[in-house]
Design a protein that fits this description.
Elements (H helix, E strand, L loop, with lengths): L1 H11 L3 H7 L4 E6 L2 E13 L8 H4 L15 E6 L3 E7 L8 E11 L1 H8 L11 H7 L17 E4 L7 E4 L13 E4 L12 E2 L3
Antiparallel strand pairs: 1-2, 1-6, 2-5, 2-8, 3-4, 4-5, 7-8, 7-9
Length: 202
């Protein structure tokens, strides 16, 4: 476990877009009072530094956003449109800024809890979006600043690398939508509905 987590720390201490690709296949786990829920990461988006017009780092100057320049592996959690919590993983080279938005999970553990929280019958709808997955795993704003590599209640666990990856521009935003910084596992039915893209080549 320690070796796998060190490899994750190295991944998150490199370029943000590389981390976004590399997080596919890893697990996001949350232990709450209700029980454990976990999902395999199948879709991500990278948000970069001040040069990225879609990044919060370029748009906002708040203590919460400043965490994007913090230690790789921290959770950056914010509320989108006053409704949904969104969970991001801080990822950037030394001295840099950036974070990876977790966009979709494939449910692995705690499916009954996820169904109860989401109030939807189809497992394909539980975690197929960044706001959906935080609801399914009961991740709130209080998770902001959590070290996701510290083996705490909310944590990332390294997994096998996904071999077949698709890439496209980012979605759900209005700026720099053409930047190819959205990654997902090809053919996985748990990704969000927008599946137009092309195969990612290393």
């Amino acid at each position: 476990m320690a070796t796998r987590q060190r490899s994750l720390r190295r991944l998150l201490s490199g370029p943000t877009e590389v981390a976004a690709r590399g997080l596919l296949g890893c697990m996001l786990v949350h232990e709450s009072a209700d029980g454990v829920t976990a999902g395999r990461i199948v879709e991500t988006e990278a948000y970069l530094d001040l040069g990225d017009p879609a990044s919060h780092a370029a748009m906002f100057k708040t203590p919460a956003v400043a965490i994007m320049s913090g230690r790789p592996g921290l959770a950056y959690v914010y509320r989108s449109y006053g409704v949904h919590a969104m969970v991001n993983v801080v990822a950037h080279p030394p001295g840099g800024t950036g974070a990876v938005l977790i966009r979709a999970l494939e449910p692995i553990e705690g499916e009954v809890l996820m169904e109860t929280r989401r109030r939807m019958g189809s497992a394909l709808a539980w975690c197929s979006g960044p706001g959906k997955l935080t609801q399914a795993l009961a991740i709130g704003l209080d998770a902001h600043g959590t070290d996701l590599l510290a083996n705490g209640p909310l944590r990332l666990v390294a997994g096998p690398q996904v071999e077949h990856v698709m890439v496209s521009g980012r979605i759900g935003i209005s700026r720099a939508t053409e930047w190819p910084l959205r990654f997902w596992e090809a053919g996985n039915p748990h990704v969000s509905a927008h599946r137009r893209g092309h195969s990612f080549a290393e």
